[in-house]
Each structure stands twice: as C-alpha cells, then as structure tokens.
Design brief:
Number of helices: 4
CATH topology of the largest domain: Alpha-Beta Plaits
Radius of gyration: 17 Å
Oligomer: single chain
Mean pLDDT: 95
C-alpha cells in the first residue's frame, strides 16, 4: 500500500539536504514508535515537482510537491494518516494538502522499477574499518540488494523469494550525494529489475530496495 501526499508550495527555500525533515515529519505522524531501530519495512520517497533555484541555494516547489510513504504494514499507514490529520505541517511553509491511498499493484514474476530516489548500498570494508559504498557494476551490488530484500521478507514473515539487480542495459546511472545527520551518503539513480514470487515483487515496490529506505533511499515507482 502507498500513501501519496500532495504538499502546498514552499514559502522558504527548501535545502538540498531536506530528507531529514521528511523523515522527521513521518515519525512525528507515527507518534511513539520503535521504527528507528528496526529494519525498514517501509520506504519514503523524495519530494518531486520542484526545480532548483536560480541562485542554486536549494529548491522551489511553486506548484506544490508530492512524496509518498510505502509499506505492506496496514497499521503503519493508519497511524501515519491519523497523525498527519492532527498536524499537517512539514517545514519551509509546506503542509499536507491532499492524501491519496493506492493499493499495491500486481506485477507478476518480473518487473523493472524506476528508482524514485537513489539506491544506496553499503558494505563493511574488507579491512574492517568503516563502510564502503557500492554502485552498479560492482560485482556484489546485486547480491547485496537481494540479501537485503530477502532479510525484509523474512522479517515480515513472508515465505517468498526474489532477486534484485540493477538494469544492465541502462546506460546512464547517476550518483547523488546527500548529507544526513552530518554523514555523507552516496546512492545511484538506476532502474532495478525484481524477479521472483509475485508477492515478493509486490513487497519490493512497498519497501524499496537497498539500504536506508527508511530515510529516503531506494523508493521505487
């Protein structure tokens, strides 16, 4: 299931690294929860519908913006909707103007998804010091995405399997760096192909792919 949120136009400059504010609004709507410490069985998109300002200090959404919350957890959606009706404010003068709910489509056993937000993959460095970012073309990129999706399927108690792979025919993957809680993270805009049990493919659309879907990476459309 997915909640699409239509936001009013901004009254202040929306900074390039705005994702933390969206995550904050989401958890505000949920109220007291333990999702910060759990594997993310949900995904949050980035804002869409705006343009970079001419002074290159951030974004403007003159006609408003949209973003979505996606999850197979019905209770999560109920709490989010209840919370946003009590406090629809986001930041920068933007607030929720409209809410639209969409059930998870049927995709069959194979679907190519567009990355609405960059796919973020990380692994521990071989020497054991810190994390290493992984990108399309790296030999373990697809295996890491598949393992993360399978872990989420297992956590959700779903006995299904699916594989995830970057589209090998896509010629122009683009990396994007954002700073979240003072940490630089780099993901990639590149379509992915999910294959497996139909319910697992639908699940991937709900939870996103890669790491850190709960802070705005790997949302799919």
């Amino acid at each position: 299931m997915r909640i699409y949120l239509k936001l009013t136009p901004n009254e202040e400059v929306v900074p390039f690294n705005y994702q933390r504010a969206l995550v904050g609004a989401f958890h505000k709507w949920l109220g007291e929860n333990e999702l910060h410490d759990e594997i993310s069985l949900y995904s949050l998109s980035w804002l869409y519908g705006g343009k970079m300002r001419r002074d290159k200090k951030g974004y403007d959404f003159r006609h408003g913006a949209e973003f979505f919350i996606s999850s197979p957890l019905e209770d999560l959606h109920k709490k989010a909707i209840s919370g946003l009706f009590k406090d629809e404010d986001i930041q920068w003068g933007m607030r929720v103007q409209e809410v639209r709910i969409c059930t998870t489509p049927e995709f069959g056993e194979r679907q190519r998804f567009i990355a609405q937000s960059p796919v973020f993959i990380k692994k521990r460095r071989e020497e054991g010091k810190g994390q290493q970012f992984v990108f399309p073309g790296d030999e373990d990129a697809n295996a890491l995405m598949t393992a993360t999706l399978q872990k989420k399927l297992d956590r959700a108690g779903m006995g299904y399997e699916a594989s995830v792979a970057f589209d090998p025919e896509y010629q122009n993957p683009k990396t994007k760096k954002i700073t979240f809680n003072k940490i630089d993270l780099i993901g990639t805009f590149c379509p992915v192909i999910v294959e497996g049990d139909p319910e697992a493919v639908r699940f991937a659309w709900d939870v996103g792919v890669g790491h850190s879907t709960g802070i705005g990476f790997g949302a799919l459309r």
